[in-house]
Amino acid sequence: MSTFKKAQSILRPIFDQYWKDFSKANIDKVIAYYHPDALVVEAGKGGVFGKEAIKQEKTDFNENTGKAPMKVTNENYQMTPDYIIYDAEYEIRSSKSGLQKGRFSQIWKKNKDDYLILREEYSADSPADDNIAKSSEGITADTPPDDKVTKSYDRTTA
Fold first, then answer.
1. Where is the chain membrane-spanning (predicted)?
2. In sequence order, which residues have a C-beta less than 8 Å from that of residue 28 and are 6 or more positions away?
3. Domain interval for residue 96
4. CATH number of the domain to which 8 belongs
C-alpha cells in the first residue's frame, strides 16, 4: 500500500468526524482533535496558539460563515512514522461571507493510538480571485495523480 493510501485510510475517518463536529458547531468536540501545543495559522496574516485561542478562532469562523457547504478537492496525504500531513484546496459558499477559496494543510501528530492536529495553516483567496495557487501538491513517486479526490462536506444540513 502506498504511503498516500495508508495515510488516507487512517486520517479520512478522523477528518470526516472532525468536519461533522465543526459543521454542527460542536466546538468543544472540535477542540479535542487538537494537540495541546497546536498552532493555527492564516497564511500571511497571523496565527493562534493553544486550545483556548483555537477554540475562539473556530467559534469566530462559524459565526462569520454560518452554515455553508464546503467542497474539498485535490487532497494530498503524506506520512512519516509519527505524522500525517493532509493538504487540500477548499471552497466555501456562504450567504454571510460569500465565496471563500483557498488551501489548507494540517499536520496530525500520533498521540498514543490517535492522531491530533499539531499545526493547521490555511489561506483564503479574495472572492474576486478564482485562481488558487498551485504547486506540485506534494505528489510523490508512489502517489499517482488519480489518487486525488474531491469530497464535499455539507454544512447546510448540520
1. none
2. 55
3. 3-126+146-153
4. 3.10.450.50
149 band by pLDDT with thresholds 50, 70 and 90: very low
Number of domains the chain contains: 1
Tell me the per-residue pLDDT of 22-54, one tens digit each, with 9 for 90 and over: 877 788 999 999 999 999 999 999 999 999 999
How far is it, in rounded angstroms, from Cα 48 to Cα 94? 24
The answer to whether position 8 is within a domain reads yes
3-state secondary structure of 124: strand
> Phi-psi category of 74—alpha, beta or left, where left has phi over 0 and alpha has psi -120 to 50?
left
Whether 68 is covered by a domain: the verdict is yes
For residue 86, what is its C-alpha cell? Answer: 493532509
